[in-house]
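Each field is set out as follows.
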Amino acid sequence: MTGAGEPRVGQPGPESHDRIAGPYVTSLNTEAEHVEATNLLYRDPVLYDVVQSGSTSAGMCQNLIELHRPDARTLVDFGCGTGRDLEILAKRFECIGVDLQPGMVDHAHQARPGLDIRTGDMRTARLGKRMDVVTCMGNSLAYVHDNEEISQVFTTFAAHARPGALLVLCSPVAPITRTEPTTATVDTPTGPATVTIRHEWDLRTQINTMHRHWAFPSGAEARDEIRRRVLFPRELERYAEGPGFRVLDMLDGTGAGLTGPTAYTVARYTGR
């Protein structure tokens, strides 16, 4: 329950559109610029929303919450992007979203002004609130590559979790090792684009790199490169256990067990 004079979770208060300040503002901006520079969708949030319009992550997340914590009322989503999934979840929960990319957050404020979305780094963010559900979807965790920084992220999750809170993650648990390029057609605001994708896998660093070449209807072309850290299932479980989460399930939505390469992890905060 919120205190007197404090905005309800999910309702924008005076600070809702402010960036989360702290000693990491400079490094946050540098990191955000680096990630944005390597990912075309982060440079163009409108394109991001169109490309991701068919995502089922929010529905999957809500199903898992209903299964494991049906009484949940409040939720914080780290790595919320433009708030596309958060907008769906906000119909059921009182929500706050946090994202590293100022451009994505600015777009979210314009496209979804009713949502409480803030710029912040999930390694260091502290909202001063504990929630019933903590989520991190869309492979956001995979953009953190360093072991110590991954531990910091899970500490952030714990800092925002009430005893018994649910943690729902969507992240890579196995690499994509095929080396031959694949091609797909993707809807964009200017018409269908052709995207050619090639993957690389570095076992030593556990980084899966996706190289994309975009060919747009106008004749314009673009290239980007996405580097994601793969956390294998038992490794992911170990990171979760550190600050006090107990993993309840890992599933990939296929109904055929855990086959990868991406999985939903559900954990409960036991408190420490």
About this structure: The CA atoms of residues 56 and 85 lie 9 Å apart. Residues 1-28 have pLDDT under 50 and may be disordered.
